[in-house]
Amino acid sequence: MGYRQFKSKLARVIYDDEVVDADCEKLFHCDWHKANSACALVERGKAVMFKYREWELVFKQYHRGGLAGRLVEKSYLYSRLPNTRVWREFNMLRAMRELGLPVPRPVAARCVSLPPLAYRGALITERVPDSRTLTQVLCDRPVDNAQWSKLGALIARFHQKNVYHADLNASNILLTGSGDFYLIDFDKGSIRNSLSRQDADANVARLRRSLDKLQKRHSEFHFSEDNWQALESAYRAAVAD
């Protein structure tokens, strides 16, 4: 049991054979999702929740191509498959789980060649049971300061393991019914040899900006300066250890 790979005419697939098997490529097709999930349209960057066998899974599709892709990378597909966003996120999730960090289980990834220079990718992860984003929770109810402190300490754990989250915002944090936090969506993130204090602080500042924006956007949004002080104090104490 473990991670396996296979190659079709234009695609490469990696998958966790404890969850799916070699016929898992069908799970990456829009027609399959239209027929087997509540989502009528699969859009790039939008998560689709679906059930396969006994597993609750999440599908995310994204791609790199066009002018931006050509400017950033002249030639990378397949000869440099590990550098594609989808492969990097899949393997980053694997590595973080090995480090004991609370992130979704990676189930499968697919990278499709779009000659001559572009690719399209999609990622499937296990859905974190009984969870909602922090954004959804705060639109509904307050989170007590003990939980904010727990979140601050958790972010510190990621940083102590040299994990950089490229977009740490309230919608990329999950809170379960039992009070556990998970971080999600590590597209463009990285596990570095050493995470600088500047980049770690930028992660925390990014989260604060997202909370402030959400508070302005929603008439009912349960976030206060006191909450932030609880998070930041726990974070600073944890990174100082």
From TrEMBL:
<keyword id="KW-0067">ATP-binding</keyword>
<dbReference type="Pfam" id="PF06293">
    <property type="entry name" value="Kdo"/>
</dbReference>
<dbReference type="GO" id="GO:0005886">
    <property type="term" value="C:plasma membrane"/>
</dbReference>
<keyword id="KW-0997">Cell inner membrane</keyword>
<keyword id="KW-0808">Transferase</keyword>
<dbReference type="GO" id="GO:0016301">
    <property type="term" value="F:kinase activity"/>
</dbReference>
<keyword id="KW-0547">Nucleotide-binding</keyword>
<keyword id="KW-0472">Membrane</keyword>
<dbReference type="GO" id="GO:0016773">
    <property type="term" value="F:phosphotransferase activity, alcohol group as acceptor"/>
</dbReference>
<comment type="pathway">
    <text>Bacterial outer membrane biogenesis; LPS core biosynthesis.</text>
</comment>
<dbReference type="InterPro" id="IPR022826">
    <property type="entry name" value="KDO_kinase"/>
</dbReference>
<dbReference type="GO" id="GO:0009244">
    <property type="term" value="P:lipopolysaccharide core region biosynthetic process"/>
</dbReference>
<keyword id="KW-0418">Kinase</keyword>
<keyword id="KW-0448">Lipopolysaccharide biosynthesis</keyword>
<comment type="similarity">
    <text>Belongs to the protein kinase superfamily. KdkA/RfaP family.</text>
</comment>
<comment type="function">
    <text>Catalyzes the ATP-dependent phosphorylation of the 3-deoxy-D-manno-octulosonic acid (Kdo) residue in Kdo-lipid IV(A) at the 4-OH position.</text>
</comment>
<protein>
    <recommendedName>
        <fullName>3-deoxy-D-manno-octulosonic acid kinase</fullName>
        <ecNumber>2.7.1.166</ecNumber>
    </recommendedName>
</protein>
<dbReference type="GO" id="GO:0005524">
    <property type="term" value="F:ATP binding"/>
</dbReference>
<feature type="active site">
    <location>
        <position position="167"/>
    </location>
</feature>
<keyword id="KW-1003">Cell membrane</keyword>
<dbReference type="InterPro" id="IPR011009">
    <property type="entry name" value="Kinase-like_dom_sf"/>
</dbReference>
